[in-house]
Structures are given as structure tokens and as C-alpha cells.
Write a structure and sequence with these properties.
Helix content of chain A: 55-70%
Helix content of chain B: 40-55%
CATH architecture of the largest domain in chain B: Up-down Bundle
Radius of gyration of chain A: 22 Å
Order of helices and strands of chain B: HHEEEEHHEHHEHHEHEHEHEHHEHEHHH
Number of helices of chain A: 13
CATH class of the largest domain in chain B: Mainly Alpha
Shape of chain A: globular
Strand order of the largest sheet of chain B: 10-8-11-12
Number of domains of chain A: 2
Shape of chain B: globular
Radius of gyration of chain B: 26 Å
Strand content of chain B: 5-15%
Structural class of chain B: alpha/beta
Strand content of chain A: under 5%
Number of strands of chain A: 0
Largest sheet of chain B: 4 strands, parallel
CATH topology of the largest domain in chain B: Glutathione S-transferase Yfyf (Class Pi), Chain A, domain 2
Number of helices of chain B: 17
Oligomer: heterodimer
Number of domains of chain B: 3
Amino acid sequence: MANYAEMQQIFDDIRSDFRYDHELNGCLNCGVCTATCPSAHFYDYSPREIVQLLWTENVEQIYDAMQEKIWACAQCMTCAARCPFKNSPGGLVAIMREVAIARGLQSAKDVLRPFGRVMLKLITTGNQLSPDMIQPDHFPDWGPNIQKVEGDLKVLRKAIPVKTLQTVDTAWEVSLKTSVEMYTIWEMTGVLKSLEMMDENLFDVIEDFIDEKKEDYEDWLEEQDED
Amino acid sequence: MNPTDNTPGNHNANGDGATKPGFHNTDGQGIAGHGSFFQETNLSREEAVKATDWVRKHVDRRTVDLGDRMDDIREHMWELEREGEIIVHRITDAHKPMTVRTLFGWEKKIPTNQLWHHKSCGQCGNIPGYPTSLLWTMNQLGMQPGRDYLDETDQTSCTAWNYHGSGIGNVESLAAVFLRNFHQAYISGKQHGFDAGHFFPLVHCGTSFGNYKEIRKYLIESAELREKVKKILGKLGRLVDGKLVIPEEIVHYSEWVHVMRNRIASELQKIDVSNIRVTAHVACHYYKMVHEDAVYDADVLGGNRTAIITSVAQALGAQVIDYSTWYDCCGFGFRHIISEREFTRSFTMDRKIRVAREEANADVMLANDTGCVTTMDKNQWIGKTHEQNFQVPIMADIQFAALACGADPFKIVQLQWHASPCEDLVEKMGISWSETKKRFQEYLKEVEQGNIEYLYNPELAYGGAQ
């Protein structure tokens, strides 16, 4: 639990984001954002409340909302499309999530733990979802009819008539150079640091993977020079 | 009566009577002007002005901001190019553009030729019939791979699925990924003997489309952001003459389908679909993010809703059936579909599938995005546990169009990856599911032997010649 000064600092982080003034312009309390919000159907979450807390600079309640409520948002941005003030509650939530991670809030770590497999895939390959992740074992609730032709996954993927899609562990084939460029972006924009803050074990796995890929790329470059 | 902490409506005082942080009224006497707690403040004019300055400041800024937001960001983009800050990747006559109208009646150019396919990680990993149907349709229209379109390995996803799901990532990383991928699109023609700018990016994913438009806006508005990402792009060797490359338009594949719909129907269509009842679900991130850029057409849905999906279904002659939750999200939620699945499947079953089934009696729900197709397609079976014994086939607009144009449901439209009852739709279109499935299973034996059919020469993906 943060003290008041820490909560104030967290709020200052939120409102110092350059998008803040884009996303928050006022609030009539009309509630159209909440009325159209899919998450408000199922969670103790209201985009109107998020806007009101920020608008009234209620730092204690903002901190409280950052524990669970902000993670309920589905990021569909229906609220933003409907708001007569041109607010973007979903955009504000995105800023609050970034701050929750930058500050290393335990609640953020807890929420994101089950998402680790996807983050591993994304950070290391640039693809979010790969064919080998969509197997009946991983998604039993998707039912036995998860695909309508049975067979070896590799063969089924080879039967896609587009070369870049004939992959199993990535959504499409990404060149090694492209991946290395992406790792540079992660490093230079602090994404890897955020990841380390959230999940040290996952970070270690990813760091090893990235180092290996970079070495592969260096070797490839040397081979090109020799040729 | 003096108000106390327990007085209804007095939410502003702490236990010791001090004003809670964040509240701006001063006397702990309720919110002035509301109900029975209203009391005269007895402030002097100067004191009153001082006390309400913050309100005036916010309101004034809002008015200014609202005015600013009616600006077309593209005008500022051209200004930046004139000032030598950026290079705009132009849509030229060679791209054979068609002009459409967006929400506020602004014009948007949609290139129809020389396209760089910016793939979607969810589509390619999960719904491969999405991109294959698109490339097949382009081939059928006479477009030549390697000249009129390019699909290559040098691209990452936009990474926005992760950002919206986890909050890991930031505007800088999203902007750097955007500029990297679009720089690659800009220069990709060179290795095939064309000038820079030959191929124009065509974005397959709805979230990528929304994210890239939002990021382009931030890049144009923020010199600080441009400065930060310029260092990154410089390190990657992805500046042109020391400048960032920004595309003239961000174009979604469904906009290409929209402008090509009459050619698809008149030149390619082989199957009468007038007996098919279609419902449309347009991706939130297509028309709710940077909404001023979504395509509207006075002849489609009265111009009151985005024309995407509905327009191609109508051009093909299908019955487009309205339903009451048209505007609703599918329930995807980015993180939710992975780790809060009870939300995703409950919302999609209650607000989309049930309504499409019970109100519209739909034969199919067409979508234009990765997450929406995945969500609505994969989450129907589990509904049976709650006696939700209704199902609707789910696919992309371009998959439906390809079927209507005679594409093979397995080899091209790749419906074998769908969990919803697409076989019902295929049969209703007069195509034998069992026979085509049998043929596909025979083809799989050929694939095992290495005899694979391609939509383009595979070497093109690696920079090779056609």
C-alpha cells in the first residue's frame, strides 16, 4: 500500500504523459461510456468512474482503481467513440497501465502472470500468436472442433498456399534481421526493462533467447562477408 | 444544521474536517448547488473568480481542443514534409487509387495496386484463410505477385495486441515498430527492380490499423516523439535522407475490398448468394479509434455507419440483416481472450452470437479483423454448458467473397481452421463440404510429398524474382 506522497507521484506520472490532455477534456457524468462498455457488463468497472477520478484528481481512488479496475478494460475504445467530450477512457486506462508497470505494482504483476506465454512469443518473435499455441490442450473451452481436418500440424500449415505462412511456431516467417531490429527497439524504448520489472524469470528466458538470436545474426553477417 | 462527515452528499471532508485531496470546494459543506446542501458561499467577486478559475481553465481548453480535433492530421503531415522533417510515402497514379469518403466527408485515397501486405499475427497464426483469400482474390483480378503486390518475411507485427493487453510497451516502441515496418514497405520494391515507394502498405489487422493511425497522429503532433524515435530508426538504418517515412494514408485491407467490391462481384462472382442472410460485425479498432478516418458511404447503411463489410456483402447480392447489438465489441479484450476467457466467451455469446442467431437468423457473421473472428468463432462450443445451443458461422468478409467467387473452401479459404459451423454456410451456398474436404485430404498426401501449390513464387518472400 502506497502512502499519500507515492500516490500523488503515481498520479503525476499519469498526467505528465503527453497523451493525457488528448484523452481527458471534461466530463458531464452522462455515463454513455459505461453504458456501452463491454467490461462494465461483467466487472466492477466503469469508464465514467475512471474519468471522474482523474478529472477530480482523486489520487487515493486513482491508486485504488489501478489495482484491479484498469485491468478489466477490454480496450475496444467504444467509450472513446461515444464520449461527447471526446475523452478516451480506454486511452486513459492504457496510460494508467503503463504507469502501473513502470512503478512495479504487485497487482500488475499478478494480473499479467497468466499472460506470460503470449509476452514471451511477442517479444522474441514479433508475432503474438502461433499455430502451435492454438491446440486443444491449451484451449479446452474452444471445443473438440478446434479444426475441421485432423492431421499433422506441420503438414496442415504446409498446405497453406502462401510461403510466409508455412510455419508452426510463429504466425509467419520473420527474417532474422527483422527480429534483431525489433530487439533493438525493445532495448532502446525501455520495453525490456518493463518486462524485467514485471517478471524477472520471464525476462531471463527472453534475454537468453535474444542473445542467441543476435549471435546467429552476427554469424550470418560474417558468412555473408566471407562469401 | 452543520454538515458532518456522515451528512449525505458531503463526500469532500476527511474525518478531521479537512478537504480531501483532489476536491476543490473548500468548506466541507457538500457540493455547492446540489440539492438541500446548497448554501451561499458569501465569497467576494474576486474570491469567487479565484475559486472557479480551474473550471474556466478546463472548459476553455476543452473548447480549443475540440476545435483542434476537427483538424485533418494529414494537413499537418504535408506541412512537416514541406518543412523538411519527414518524407511522405505517396499514393501515386501507379497505385491506381480510388477515392472514398470518411466520417466527416473528408476524402481518403485507397490504393488498389502495388500493395505491400502487412500481415496480422492473429490471422496468420489462427485464421490463415484470411490472407490467402485476399491474395487469391488479387490473383483472380489479374494482379501479378512481385509487381502488383508483395508478401515478404521482413516485417514484424504492430505489437499492439501486447500493448493493449498488458501495458508493456509504450508509445515510443509502438512508433518505432510502425516506422520500421512502413520504411520496409517504402524500400521493398528496390530489390525487385522498382523505385522506392513502389509498394504501398496494406494493413490486414484492425488493431494494427487503429494503432498505426493513432501513432501517426502522435508522431505528427509531437516533435519530441519524432526526435526520440529518429534516434532508433537511425540506428536501424531506416531513415531516408535522415528523415522518417510516414505513409500518406493508413489503409486497411477491408477498405481495398470495399473499393473493389463491384469488380469482385461483376468479374469474379460465380455463386448466387441471394439466399444467404449476412450479419456484419465491424472491428472496434477499425472505426472507433481515430474514427474520423473510417470509411462511410451515403449509399451504404444510409451513411450512418461505416460502409465496410456491408458494402461487399450487398455488392455480392447477399441479404444483409441488421441486429440490435451491431455497435457492440466482440469481447476480445486482448488479455481477456487469453487469461480471462469467461468474460470473452460470455460477452460474445450473449451480445453477438445470440443476437445474430435469434434476431437476424443469420447464416453467417462477417468480420474484418483478427480478434473478432477468433473470438466469435472459437467461443461458441462452450456455450453448450450454459444451454446456449445456438451457433453462427464466422468468417472474414474476404473469405465470404472468395467463396462466392468459387474459391476452394479448404485450399484457399482454409475453413478447416474455423471452429464455428462454416460447413452449414458452404452447403447452403451449394458447395459440397464433404466432397471438397475429401479432395483436400487427398491434397494433403501430395503436400507430404512436397507437391505444394502456391499463390505466388515462394522466392518472392525472400527478395527473389518473380
